[in-house]
Design a protein that fits this description.
The protein is mainly α. Helix content is about 55%, strand content about 5%. The two termini are about 20 Å apart. The relative contact order is 0.12.
Length: about 150
Amino acid sequence: QKDRYQGAPRQEAYGETLRRAPFAVAYNGDIFSVDEYNALCTAYPQTRHVMLGRGLLANPALARMVRGGAPATAAELKRFHDKLFSAYLDEMGGNAVFRMKEWWFYAKCAFADPTTVHKLVRKTKKADEYRAAVNRVFREQPLAPTARFHG
């Protein structure tokens, strides 16, 4: 909490807690890729529960990939976006664009050129211009071979 999502997770503290705790322990600390998940489970083989949190924002298929499945396609990512945006619009109206920009902070990492994706989306203020920018992203920007959070 004091770090405010900065710095590296303290895996040694997790390992100590995992070893000592008489109850189930879940790891929660910046798992953004299958490699990071595998490294955690290799270092702490008794791990049974991992929270993916922000990793799922950057790569909605991460849980599937951890189980050996395929990365998200552009169509899946677009469907995920559209459902999320629609739900935000229903719940909060015009503030949905602001909330979606928070999602794009992570989701841009699914694309080969996250900087361009960020520039396209960040300038929008109204739902119609936001939709146009998002359509342009999905029309013009290829996905990265593997979604990877860049911070």
